[in-house]
UniProtKB/TrEMBL annotation, chain B:
Family annotation (InterPro entries): SBP (IPR006059)
Protein name according to UniProt: Extracellular solute-binding protein
GO CC term (a single one): ATP-binding cassette (ABC) transporter complex, substrate-binding subunit-containing
Protein family per UniProt: Belongs to the bacterial solute-binding protein 1 family.
Entry keyword Signal: yes
Chain segments carrying region Disordered: 24-53
MF annotations from Gene Ontology: maltose binding
Keywords: Signal, Transport
SUPFAM superfamilies xref list: Periplasmic binding protein-like II (SSF53850)
GO biological process, alphabetically ordered: maltodextrin transmembrane transport; maltose transport
Length: 294, 442
């Protein structure tokens, strides 16, 4: 007993170097940002004033921040639902024991390994209203009435960007669902078939409930990725037209680096941190409970 | 006892690890030539001109001849080593900011963008050395220097004049029998004739900031030719964007171009590349852009087999003067904390020497030095007169606090162009953004 206690003390002591690193390079700067969020620092000048909660209160009345906040929620919900629906669909499609399954898995997963910046550029060209291949394709199919200004329309732009992020994320979800699907015991499915369940019923009542762990992972990570949406927005629309595709991250960048208002940008960063924290905590709590019940 | 020793051992270990990391930094500071300005440089370097390591940072393709001339300077000055680092604009700006704030790894010389929201911030923070006494300063127009100056002292020396105007398909103009417009009515007439010939008058990539460029290009004639002190009055709160007739009528001019269909369709989704493709295909005839983009239009013209030209955006009513939107390029500054300031200043005088300037700034650029006349690109033939002798007003971000350019004249303008806002609201947004920025000391 005594021996194991001493062992534990020694092992804790060996965690100190790592802990010190963590504190110096992560905890300290993070705490510092709380301080900067209450100043009017412009990012350069060592002379700045302490302004208390002004930066935070200003965000309430800031139309830009409000728009960015609403957009961010749309990105998060759209990305999460979109990539789960498509990911699940793809997972089921490539889990049928066909010879081509592996090839399709690779193809569907491939957008995941391309850099977001490259994806953004490629899709900007595809979605270009005049020379873009999507509008060209629609025209060629005789569907020119469906041609749109995909990234320039106030209503559509945000969903175009979300669509691209779904295109990128669905393959990843597919892998998660696939792993989970393959762990579903065949006995359950056979038993259900013997009881006369149709394919759809088997999927709905046997397989889907057993996919709860995969749902938990994809929902949480999808929400976090959506809430942090930045690179696609910067590459594809720079937040435009107007503020139609601005996310909290992109507006933080603009406020800090274009408008020289680092204090205000840091305050936005803290608000974003709190939002992600709360949403993720609620999700984990709800999904864990459901997972246990299932 | 064991507990204590293990604790001490672990602490020592972590201390070693952390100092290793620290010494690593300083080692790289002194070793890397780009860090000649850090306090870690040997004291002898600051006193004797021998063995000086100078670091220069520049964004993008600015000062294209810098590397060549730096070598020449090294040959003439034994013991001086110069290293030039280039980075894309945004990356350059942010890295430099971070280094300046941390006072670590700061290059001895670097380029700064003109204006209050750019170099002005660095001047106020005390990061820049006074360059007023240097030779080239006397040979540069006050108008070019003032965006780099404060309280009569010069902190950055611009190397070229930049300007905004309208690039146009000269071949198409000639086919249609059109002349270069010199006032607003002539522009509308040209646009109307082009439209009835089935050509969209303007390619307008609003996605990449064409809206902002057009504001920049219009207001020298429509606002500042009538009231050159407008900005100062705005700082003094005597005037506002939303209540100024000149700004309101400029907004109406933009609205007219939009409503008549002169700007084309789907402009908020249109990027620079596609807009240029419209010009190359002869589907559109004019595009607002700056002299820095001349390479694109030279290539476009030769690929498409057309002739391109450029004229100043005629926002002026007939009989009123046409003013050009022009501003100095980036300017070379010296870090106030550099131990090699004397050598750095010598290098500036060398670079801005009349003989070296043409190589330094590259072809097609207009030197800031009054003593240097350069061969101009044929594309600039129509705009040359107004550049050399005409009146101009700087780009709006030069005299303004940071904010309105992006908030109002880019973002809200996109909204107005897309029908989700109005040009009156653009001006209201400009007032709001201006006040906010000035309040926070920018």
């Amino acid at each position: 007993m005594l021996k194991s206690k001493r062992f534990r003390e020694v092992s804790y002591a060996f965690a100190i170097p790592a802990l010190l690193f963590y504190c110096v390079f992560f905890i300290y700067p993070s705490l510092q940002s709380f301080y900067f969020s209450m100043t009017d620092w412009n990012g350069m000048d060592p002379h700045y004033r302490f302004t208390g909660l002004d930066n935070f209160l200003g965000l309430w009345n800031d139309g830009r921040f409000g728009a960015a906040f609403r957009n961010t929620i749309r990105y998060a919900v759209g990305l999460t639902i979109g990539q789960i629906v498509f990911g699940l669909l793809l997972a089921v499609l490539v889990n049928r024991g066909r010879r081509a399954d592996n090839w399709f898995r690779t193809v569907f997963f491939s957008p995941q390994v391309i850099s977001m910046i490259a994806i953004g550029y490629i899709w900007s060209y595809i979605l270009d209203p005049i020379n873009g291949s999507l509008n060209y394709l629609l025209d060629w199919l005789g569907l020119s009435s469906l041609q749109q200004d995909w990234l320039g329309s106030f209503k559509l732009a945000i969903w175009s960007v979300t669509g691209v992020s779904v295109w990128q994320g669905a393959g990843w979800c597919m892998v998660i669902f696939l792993a989970n699907l393959q762990s579903v015991p065949q006995e359950y499915i056979e038993a259900a078939s013997m009881d006369g369940a149709t394919g759809l019923q088997r999927f709905r009542h046997v397989i889907l409930p057993l996919l709860a762990p995969a749902f938990t992972i994809t929902i949480v990570t999808g929400m976090i990725a959506g809430l942090k949406m930045f690179d696609l927005v910067m590459v594809m629309t720079k937040g435009g037209p107007g503020f139609a595709t601005e996310s909290i991250s992109s507006i933080i960048y603009n406020t800090a680096f274009l408008d020289n208002r680092f204090g205000e940008a840091t305050a936005m960063g803290i608000v974003m941190f709190l939002i992600i924290l709360v949403i993720t905590a609620i999700q984990l709590w709800a999904l864990n409970r459901r997972g246990v019940e299932a | 006892m064991k507990k204590v020793t293990s604790f001490v051992a672990a602490l020592a270990l972590s201390a070693v690890a952390l100092t290793a990391c620290g010494s690593d930094n300083t080692a790289s500071n002194t070793a890397s030539p780009s860090s000649g300005g850090t306090a870690g440089a040997s004291p002898s370097a600051s006193t004797s001109p021998k063995n000086v390591a100078l670091g220069i940072s520049v964004p993008g393709q600015d000062l294209p001849g810098l590397e060549e001339l730096a070598k020449k300077f090294e040959e003439q000055n034994a013991g001086v080593k110069i290293s030039v680092a280039r980075a894309p604009n945004e990356q350059y700006e942010q890295t430099l900011k971070a280094h300046l704030v941390a006072k670590e790894d700061v290059p001895d010389l670097f380029l700064q963008w003109p204006g209050r929201g750019k170099i002005g911030v660095a001047i106020n923070a005390g990061y820049l050395a006074d360059l007023s006494s240097l030779g080239p300063v006397a040979d540069i127009d006050q108008g070019q220097l003032s965006p780099f100056s404060q309280d009569g002292k010069v902190y950055g020396i611009p190397w070229a004049k930049n300007f905004l105007g309208v690039y146009y398909n000269k071949t198409l103009f000639e086919q249609q029998g059109l002349n270069v417009p010199t006032n607003w009515e002539e522009l509308l007439e040209v646009a109307d004739r082009l439209q009835s010939a089935g050509v969209t008058p303007f390619a307008f990539p609003a996605k990449d900031g064409s809206g902002m460029f057009t504001w920049y290009a219009l207001v020298p004639s429509t606002v500042y030719a009538k009231d050159p002190d407008w900005d100062q009055k705005r700082y003094d709160n005597q005037v506002q964007f939303a209540t100024s007739d000149s700004w309101k009528s400029t907004g109406e001019q933009l609205k007219l171009l939009l409503d008549k269909g002169y700007l084309g369709k789907n402009i908020n989704g249109l990027g620079n590349d596609s807009a240029n493709a419209l010009i190359a295909d002869g589907k559109a005839a004019m595009i607002v852009n700056g002299n820095w983009a001349i390479g694109d239009y030279e290539k476009l013209a030769s690929d498409a087999g057309i002739t391109m030209g450029m004229f100043a955006f005629p926002g002026n009513e007939p009989g009123q003067p046409l003013w050009l939107s022009a501003a100095p390029s980036t300017g070379l500054s010296v870090w106030s904390g550099s131990p090699n300031q004397d050598t750095a200043k010598q290098l500036i005088e060398f670079l801005y020497d009349e003989e070296n300037v043409p190589a330094l700034i590259g072809s097609g650029q207009f030197s800031t030095l009054k003593t240097v006349a350069m061969d101009s690109n044929p594309i600039f033939a129509d705009i040359l007169d107004i550049i050399r002798t005409g009146s101009s007003y700087p780009f709006l971000d030069v005299g303004w606090p940071a904010g309105p350019q992006s908030d109002a004249f880019t973002k809200e303008t996109q909204a107005a162009l897309g029908g989700a806002s109005t040009f009156e609201k653009v001006l209201e947004a400009a007032d709001k953004s201006w006040d906010k920025s000035v309040e926070s000391g920018n």
